[in-house]
Design brief:
The protein has eight helices and no strands. It is mainly α. It starts with a helix and ends in an 8-residue tail after the last helix.
């Protein structure tokens, strides 16, 4: 291959070269932006994360926080009140049989998700 034929594919200086470089930059930035987005399946999983975390409370506090019997219902409880209660369990300031252990098994961010989930639930009807 001669020197002339190798150079035939190159874009010369000037507007054409800048336009080509500009398009390459736009493509690179767009590709980078797409990589930064989580996959759609991850977004779908995150939408249910609070619900999934709160489901572990159902054994004692009922489905969606609507407890039966003597257990405290969580549905409709303000998130800040629930977070304060959980903090008291974690620190040992509130006596408990198991809640001090359960509350320590979650991160602060997870507890915030759970508290927000229960705050958004419909409280049980008054008896």
């Amino acid at each position: 291959m001669s020197h002339a034929s190798r150079g035939a594919c190159r874009v010369g200086p000037g507007p054409a070269r800048r336009a080509l470089a500009s398009r390459a930059l736009v493509r690179a930035l767009a590709g980078t932006a797409l990589l930064a987005l989580p996959p759609a399946t991850a977004l779908a999983q995150d939408a249910n994360l609070a619900r999934s975390l709160a489901a572990t409370c159902a054994n004692c506090h009922g489905t969606n926080g609507n407890a039966r019997g003597d257990m405290k219902p969580l549905a409709g409880m303000p998130a800040d009140k629930l977070l304060a209660m959980l903090a008291d369990f974690r620190s040992g300031n509130q006596p408990a049989t198991i809640m001090h252990q359960i509350s320590k098994g979650y991160s602060e961010e997870q507890l915030k998700l759970v508290a927000a989930y229960f705050a958004a639930q419909t409280p049980p009807a008054a008896k």
